[in-house]
Write the structure tokens for this entry.
Amino acid sequence: MLTRVFSAAIQGVEAIQVEIEVNAGSGDPVIVLVGLPDAAVRESKDRVTTAIANSGFRWPRSRTTVNLAPADLRKEGPSFDLPIAMGMIAVAEGTEISRLRHCLLAGELALNGEVRPIKGALPIAMEARRQRKKAVILPRANAREAAVVQGIDVYGVSNLRETFEFLAHQRELSTVQGDFDFSRGATDDLDFSEVQGQHLVKRAIEVAVAGNHALLLIGPPGSGKSMLSKRIATIMPPMTVEEAIETTKIHSICGLLDGENSFCSTRPFRAPHHTISDAGLIGGSSNPTPGEVSLAHNGVLFLDELPEFRRSTLEVLRQPLEDRKVTVSRAAGTVTFPASVMLVAAMNPCACGYFGDPKRECRCSPKQVENYRNRISGPLLN
């Protein structure tokens, strides 16, 4: 018997539909996974069979082939556990589950059949809508995140049995309602109005924000550079719904959302440490994932102690700042991440930090001051 189940794979910031074909034939009882799966997907057969047994179902006791199509697209992560399990149950039961063809499923399975959260729930729901599916079935912890997508029903499930009973019309689930809540966010505890004094600096920041200009703050330690920078996002214009969804997609792919914070309603503020690598800043690895510049999309990227960053790391920022996007090319393919950020940087005027300070004496020679400032290239300063 052959059963088809639909899921999705993440590529860049988008999801691509994956058709999972499960076929049971004659031969020794073995499960064969094909379709360019990675190690996490290949290991899913052990999780799936154990979860099926612990949920009170049967799985095929013959040669079972699971094909993930398209075969030339690399499949990564544990999100294919749930659709593979549903396909194997349908084959073992010998029944056609009518709802399967109209739904897109994704979820990781625990050994007891519990459905665990996954990354990328929002782009998966958007792909389900593009493919004209009627519903998307996701872990309950990811349902609110995906429910912001209009035009498709989103169902959150807790375990494998609940999923099967819903698909087999033995149980009804209520759809999860999404809302665009712009009233609360991660920066509610910070406010630009809390800053006392510093009138010239605050005026410069307001002008930079109004024109979306990059900003470099130079001053001695303790002068308030970091404190001011952390509050810049609070005076930026509120995000539109389109900007919020685009930002949420990136954070969803990186697994930074949870049941409590399932929607990015405020401008992101990212402050990576100066030891960050090139790939950590702009994105990369063998399977390209977004870097800090993309996680700060539509918000603020703050680089504190700017001269302490590796020169090569700072230079890779030049093109993304100009193009407002990052293109990462690897042997597996090329992906593009959005990177429209307001760059804010802070640095001391010299190595000791007190050059020009009226209260503390600078211990650096003119040559040391020049060498310290020359750590940052002229094109980046421009």
